[in-house]
Amino acid sequence: xxxxxxxxxxxxxxxxxxxxxxxxxxxxxxxxxxxxxxxxxxxxxxxxxxxxxxxxxxxxxxxxxxxxxxxxxxxxxxxxxxxxxxxxxxxxxxxxxxxxxxxxxxxxxxxxxxxxxxxxxxxxxxxxxxxxxxxxxxxxxxxxxxxxxxxxxxxxxxxxxxxxxxxxxxxxxxxxxxxxxxxxxxxxxxxxxxxxxxxxxxxxxxxxxxxxxxxxxxxxxxxxxxxxxxxxxxxxxxxxxxxxxxxxxxxxxxxxxxxxxxxxxxxxxxxxxxxxxxxxxxxxxxxxxxxxxxxxxxxxxxxxxxxxxxxxxxxxxxxxxxxxxxxxxxxxxxxxxxxxxxxxxxxxxxxxxxxxxxxxxxxxxxxxxxxxxxxxxxxxxxxxxxxxxx
Length: 390
Hints:
Elements: H1 4-27, H2 34-49, H3 53-56, H4 61-87, H5 103-116, H6 120-128, H7 136-177, H8 187-212, H9 220-238, H10 253-261, H11 277-292, H12 304-311, H13 315-326, H14 330-348, H15 353-359, H16 365-376, H17 380-389
């Protein structure tokens, strides 16, 4: 082979794809959310293989190209379904209403069929030599494929934007419902999406410049390296990532209806929720009692529905009271009380910072530090030193 480096990276990618796909498909019966991720791995493997087919299987080179186009058109929907499943407030399963996402993939399958109807000579001239064939059908196929490539660009941009918006909405939603979110924020996915988006942009630019200007922006080596980086990153994080709401799905129908009405920042406001100022004040008083006397904030698994049940109020009313009357989201409200309880423990110096964090309801030292610094303007160590000096 002309470039052994490309072969090494492609083989490594295919090895990762084979292993990860096997593991994910075994998990799919219990967690269907892993099926889209397995699909993404398979599509990436098909695309990566195209880098070595010209040297290893030259006779299939022209026809293999037609298989990669549907694979490209499957990447965006597969990644979207995966993110949708990770951020869903109910156990995710494929639904018929989502089939429209696969329309571009279906068009890609049609392109594969149309392309394979061409003769080997025509395929060689068009896709390998870059020559035009002066006949109606080959010209029609070329125009159709070029339209799909442009469509893939639009599709990719659409899914990148949509996924980024979903992740932002999901993180806001977590803070509306839970006081501990450090294991569910999916920050790694944002960085990975940046890498994937960059790879897609380079791929499209290479296709355009190769066909119209005669040079590549990113060569096969770059493509092989970035494909391995994407697959490896997804293998490291995706195989161990559970859906963010797993174990605390909104299975109760009443809670689902209440919480749907209580969405803020991009969701419905509270125009439909009949809550008078007097009721809001009563709920605020109950909340303060639950914090001071019951110390419910010490429970590391506390959630908005659980707090609402504890004080005997509708979930959407509690959410509205927190946001409009008290002026804080659930996440900030609970953690403020946790910091309030942590201050005397830090000042006494009898426990370690980690022990104190766990005692007051945090699940991680890092989230405790972040919340404490936001609330007091000091780290726990700085607060302890300042207290001892005074």
